[in-house]
Amino acid sequence: MQLTIDREYLIKTLSDLIRINSINPQLVPEGAGEAEIAAYIAGALRRLNLEVMTHEPEPGRVSVVGKLKGKGRGRSLMLNGHVDTVGVAGMREAFAAAIRNGRMYGRGTYDMKGSIAACMTAVKALVDANVSLGGDLLLAAVADEEYFSLGAVEVIKHHRVDGAIVTEATEMNLCRAHKGFIWLGVETLGRAAHGSRFDEGIDANMRMGRFLAELDKLEKELRSRSTHPLVGPPSLHAALINGGAGLSTYAASCKLKIERRTIPGETEAQVVSEIKAIIDRLSAADPTFKATVSAFCTRDPFEVAADAAIARAVEQAATNVRGTPPQHIGQTYWMDSALLANAGVETVVIGPIGAGAHADEEWVDLQSLVDLAEILAQAAIAYCR
User: Fold this and answer.
1) 12 vs 91, 331, 349, CA distance in Å?
2) Segments forming the whole domain that contains residue 76
3) Which of 100, 130, 190, 138 is nearest to 4 (CA)?
4) Could you identify which of 56, 162, 188, 273 might form a hypothetical disulfide with 207, taking C-beta atoms 3.0 to 4.6 angstroms apart as the criterion?
């Protein structure tokens, strides 16, 4: 079967996407959100004769799902990417979609409107070739990945699929794992008193200092553990701290926020218990040491086996298109792929070559997007049979 990747369509589509402001308003208050870009994508998918659905869990935070119906007897597949971006402060070519030396420049070219354009071009190639898939092929362009993944969470509620390809940038490598993260709050408790009354005051800030010294030991111990073969060791850092009410007052409370990066196999319960063990040791050594710990946001790590059907389909397609098998890698940052995997969807990640995610200059290699589109189309044929 001969698939034709419409390079001009891809470049025109990506140019249009880049010129639409879809800055996440949770990151930049004046950000436009995803309504306009979602309307553009919905219209483009309708012109390809896809069934189109939109989801808006909060006003202006719109995700689009297009469905290319299959025969009903094969596996279903989702091509997934996000349409929100970070801010553009400091950028000279944020919305220009300028092309130089085979690269397109602008906010979202790499992270990740380029991948959305490649997904749309892959679907167009299948439609143009009149390919009849065994199962349904869905294209999900989701909102809010850069903040809290409202879009992916909502889409997963409404659309059940067997497999998914998340098209975050991977330099055309096959990403089979990434780290998760847990945000934790620790509060040490003291007793407020006038600064002259050492006999009455208990300094919560000083007690947080003891805790931080032990946390530093845990941080070093985490990085010395056996590493995951794709994502490396777990880690943590003390991100934010606040304590005390005045210079002449013993601090009654000190609050610390910790980010703990997790590797596949680690759980929230395990992470909280490690912090609780520090508190218990310090409390045993000094009855005036009182502290609490709680997790307030958890995003699980992700991993898929090398022999999973979706991994095999994408690996073979990438080998066909690029001539050599893709390298299997892991990423240290979190992606929506973990949400799909937690919903029971076998998932892999593959995306284009480029640079500058969240930076002042961002670009994507256009030929890698053409290759990506062909890989996605071939993988869909193989997986959905």
Assistant:
1) 22, 30, 24
2) 7-178+302-383
3) 130
4) 188
